[in-house]
Write a structure and sequence with these properties.
mainly alpha; two-stranded antiparallel ribbon; 2 strands; globular; binds CU-O-CU linkage; Tyrosinase copper-binding domain-containing protein
């Protein structure tokens, strides 16, 4: 229970940190354009979990005590380095499987359980959680605005920290699935990497024989070791002999979106979203393509839905990569 409270407290800190960052981004944008406008944005308060109106059963346990506190960087922790998902070895896979298995085994009264983890993604979008304001309650929406990157960054961060804590290994870092890597060298980045595709638990005495990171509901293409992501045609499935043209187009699309479409901080990050606004005003440059294409390619019925996408552990590798692309571009 204490852990859950801590988790929820920590989690709420992330929203305001993201907004502060974005205020800074916005300010820089204004200054670069020599068009100095005062941008005022109150940090988003933590949403009140009592106001959860989810019709899709996404409400999570409510901490019994405590006011949210601001996120503090955990400077006592060792530097963690996220590995590329297609390059990790079996020992790493076993460790990650074990951590995820422990997370999945937590009871649903524990805010850190995997079920509660993925529900948080559902909860923070899709009209489930409402802010009270003086005028009208309005729903929180973490997509299609500049909240997209910071919210998902901290979502992945806390997920990773909980996994690390469950295996008592402060060096643990999630893999990033760099589907933007178009190299034909084996192992390839642009297929579902072994860490997610491996069906078996690779460590001794697993609770289950099936890997806790595997998800059998992915599309046949994403389940096939040779399935290849075609970013522009996410419902197609080029096989192992994918043409050079598809690889080149994948690389081109990602690059053009990032540097050709996302030419200003606002175009890159997405539409402004301040306290009191309706959210979801407009995507940043990478959000629909390639980010949305990857969701669609893995599984349109699950990974592409707001409700269930984070219930496939590959979601966290996908978003660790979005986090990386945010840094890269
Ligand atoms: Cu909240 Cu990739 O989505």
């Amino acid at each position: 229970m204490i852990e859950m409270v801590e988790y929820n407290i920590e989690k709420t800190g992330k929203t305001s940190m993201g907004i502060n960052f974005l205020v800074w981004v916005t300010l820089s944008f204004c200054i670069v354009n020599v068009n100095v406008t005062v941008v005022e944005a109150l940090p988003f308060p933590a949403p009140n979990l009592d106001n959860c109106l989810s019709s899709e059963a996404c409400c999570t346990p409510i901490p019994s005590t405590a006011k949210p506190t601001k996120f503090k960087f955990q400077t006592h922790l060792p530097m963690r380095i996220r590995p590329a998902a297609h390059l990790v070895d079996d020992a790493y896979i076993a460790k990650y499987q074990r951590a995820m298995e422990l997370m999945k085994a937590l009871p649903d009264t524990d805010g850190r359980s995997f079920t509660n983890q993925w529900k948080i993604h559902c909860l923070y979008c899709d009209n489930h959680l409402y802010f009270e304001t003086e005028t009208h309650p309005y729903p929180l929406e973490i997509h299609k605005s500049w909240l997209f990157y910071p919210w998902h960054r901290l979502y992945v961060y806390f997920h990773e920290r909980i996994l690390a804590k469950l295996i008592d290994d402060d060096t643990f870092a999630l893999p990033f699935w760099n589907w933007d890597n178009q190299s034909p060298e084996l192992p390839q980045g642009n297929v579902v990497p072994k860490v997610y595709a491996e069906k078996r638990s690779l460590y001794t005495d697993p609770i289950n024989k099936t890997s806790s990171i595997y998800d059998e509901t992915r599309t046949p293409c994403a389940l096939s070791p040779e399935g290849f992501l075609d970013i522009q045609n996410p419902f197609s499935c080029p096989g192992a002999n994918v043409s050079e043209e598809v690889r080149a187009t994948n690389a081109h699309v990602t690059y053009v979106q990032a540097v050709g479409v996302g030419v200003t901080p606002l175009l890159f990050h997405g539409w402004p979203y301040r306290l009191g606004d309706e959210g979801g005003g407009g995507n940043g440059a990478l959000e629909a393509t390639p980010h949305g294409s990857v969701h669609a390619w893995v599984n349109a019925k699950k990974m592409l839905t707001f409700r269930d996408s984070a219930a496939d552990p590959i979601f966290f590798g996908h978003h660790a990569n979005m986090d990386r692309l945010w840094e890269v571009y």
